[in-house]
Write a structure and sequence with these properties.
Length: 279
């Protein structure tokens, strides 16, 4: 069902779903957000009369505590129910910032690569990541540093994934993000570009399986409509494990946002229709 659920991330990556969180503030040092969303869809198989359906419900909360001027504690918890078994995501991390251009973070948290190349779990983005984004490793026990402020930023760190050390490095400059990871014989590199006006977004991932994955999005009419393509090509097998193209129509009100979506998925020969609502 992951393939069925992924396509709507394109719109969210362009900034629409990320503005729909409910924020709260306990005092000057403690604040956070609350998220809830429901996603449903139908998959019509072109070569048969079979119809697949799904619905997922996600809820979660995130909080930050500014313990002192240089220390910050952050945590989130997310639970999603759907056609598969429930999914739980969590993070708990401490950040020390001795200056405004240097920071150290440690805890169970997304390391540099997923921190910037995968959507944040507490908005509509993460409820349906693209196939391409899912190829970037997620949160794990990690420690990393951040160097930079207004100009280029450099991230580097180490995570413990499957009882094995994983090393990551990432560079961010203006609209461009490039990084990579190594864990034993496993490795991957990724890059992302997004225009300042959010009219275009692209992420590309290549890893040790010799698979090149790419998501491209074009937003039209001030983001009211989006066109996208999510594609993957395996050079070893000379095959396309992933190809989906589609269009999205976005809507939002004071309290609820969402979208309608239509797509064609080549690997399953199916036409997909979706509806998404979130706070």
């Amino acid at each position: 069902m992951k393939i069925i659920k992924v396509i709507f991330i394109y719109l969210c990556l362009s900034g629409f779903a990320s503005k729909a969180q409910i924020t709260f503030k306990i005092d000057s040092n403690v604040n956070g957000t609350v998220y809830a969303g429901i996603l449903s869809g139908v998959k019509y198989l072109i070569d048969s009369t079979k119809v697949d359906r799904f619905i997922t419900v996600r809820a979660g909360a995130h909080a930050k505590w500014q313990i002192a001027r240089k220390f910050k504690l952050s945590s989130f918890a997310v639970l999603e129910f759907g056609t598969d078994k429930p999914i739980g995501l969590y993070s708990f991390a401490l950040t020390y910032s001795p200056t405004n251009w240097l920071a150290f973070t440690a805890g169970h948290t997304p390391p540099p690569l997923p921190l910037l190349l995968r959507p944040y779990p507490l908005n509509g983005n993460s409820q349906f990541e693209t196939w391409t984004q899912q190829r970037v490793p997620g949160a794990a026990p990690s420690a990393y540093f951040t160097i930079g402020n207004k100009g280029p930023k450099v991230y580097g760190g180490v995570s413990l994934r499957n009882q094995t050390a994983e090393y990551e490095v990432e560079v961010v400059y203006r609209a461009f993000t490039v990084g990579g990871y190594v864990r034993d014989s496993l490795w991957g590199v990724a890059g992302q570009v997004s225009t300042k006006d959010e009219k275009f977004f692209q992420i590309t991932v290549f890893d040790n399986t010799h698979t090149l994955a790419n998501t491209s999005v074009v937003n039209l009419h001030k983001g009211e409509y989006s066109l996208y393509c999510d594609i993957g090509y395996n050079f070893s097998k000379e095959e396309l494990p992933r190809l989906e193209v589609g269009a999205l129509k976005n809507f939002k009100s004071k309290y609820v946002s969402g979208l309608f979506g239509l797509s064609y998925q080549v690997e399953t020969s199916s036409a997909n229709a979706y509806l998404f609502f979130h706070l």
